[in-house]
Write the structure tokens for this entry.
Amino acid sequence: MKSIWLKGHEKNKEARREQIKSAAWAFSLLEEVLEKEFKKKPLPKDYSDPQWVHKTIAANEYNRALDDLLSLIQINEG
């Protein structure tokens, strides 16, 4: 579980941890949807396109955001 889930809950971390763990089923469903519907974008290979740099940046940012979301919803301790 990422520490961001506990941020701002210093007085009651264990209760917050249990609250998040109890929603594991929803995180699991969300993970399935994200992995099925939101595929990583391939990086452009056409370097003759004047926009290749911008397209590469956009694909990298999208892929990073998707990775971050998938990482955030991995709440299983371990």
The mean pLDDT is 93. The radius of gyration is 17 Å. The longest helix spans residues 52-72. The chain has one domain: 3-72.
